[in-house]
Amino acid sequence: MFRNIVAFALILAAPVLHATPPDEPPSWQARVGQALPLFGHRNWILIVDSAYPLQSSPGVETVDTRAALPVVLHFVLDEIDNSEHVRPEIFMDAELPFVSEEDAPEVEQYRTTMADMLRAYGVQSLPHEKLIATVNEAGKTFQVLVLKTTSTIPYSSVFIRLKAKYWSDEAEARLRKKMGAKQ
C-alpha cells in the first residue's frame, strides 16, 4: 500500500520535476534584433547611462543591458548598418564637452572613444532636456527603445533617430521643392 502511494505521488510530481524552467527574458541583443526590422524612420534607439530616467510615454520601452555603453552602441550601430531599410541620425548631449575629468573621471577617454566610434556618422548636439522632451514626444506616436547601460559618466547617452536608408535627405528636399512649386 505504501509503495502504491509513493508511486502515485511520483507520478503526480513527475511533470513538476521535469518541467522546464520559465523562459528567461530575451537578451538586449535579441530585443534589438526583434525591434529593428519593425522600426522605420522616426523610431528611436537610445543607448543611455545608468541614471537615465525611466520614461512613461506609452511607446518608450526600457531594457537594462548590464553592459558598457560603447559595447551596446557598437552592437546597435552594426545592426543598423547591416539593415536594408534604416540609417542612424545621431544626437548627443550638448553638455558632454563641458563635463570635467575632475567631476567625472574617465570622461576624457569616453569622449575620445565616442569620437572614434561616431566619426563616420556625424553627431548633432542638443541640450539633454531637449533630447528627453523630443524622445518623450516621439514616444506618444512612435516606438522608442531605450537600452540602459552601466555608464556612470553624466551626459554620455547616445540618441539615435532612425531614417530611411533608401531615401536621402537630399531626395526629400528635392521632393518638397517640387511639391511647393505645384501648390
Secondary structure blueprint with pairings:
Blueprint: H1 2-17, H2 28-35, E1 44-48, E2 60-64, H3 69-81, E3 86-93, H4 107-118, E4 123-126, H5 128-138, E5 144-148, E6 158-164, H6 169-182
Parallel strand pairs: 1-5, 2-5, 3-4
Antiparallel strand pairs: 1-6, 3-6
Spatial arrangement of strands, main beta sheet: 2-5-1-6-3-4
The CATH superfamily bears the name RbsD-like domain
Count of individual domains: 1
Query: Mind telling me the CATH class?
Result: Alpha Beta
Strand content: 15-25%
Element-by-element helix/strand order = HHEEHEHEHEEH
Task: Describe, in short, the structure shown.
The chain has 183 residues and is of the alpha/beta class.
Task: Give structural attributes.
183 residues; alpha/beta; RbsD-like fold; 6-stranded mixed β-sheet; 6 strands; globular
Model description:
This protein has 183 residues and is α/β, with parallel strands linked by helices. The chain has a single domain, classed as RbsD-like fold. Helix content is 40%, strand content 19%. It contains six helices and six strands. The longest helix has 16 residues, at 2-17. The model has no long low-confidence stretch (mean pLDDT 89).
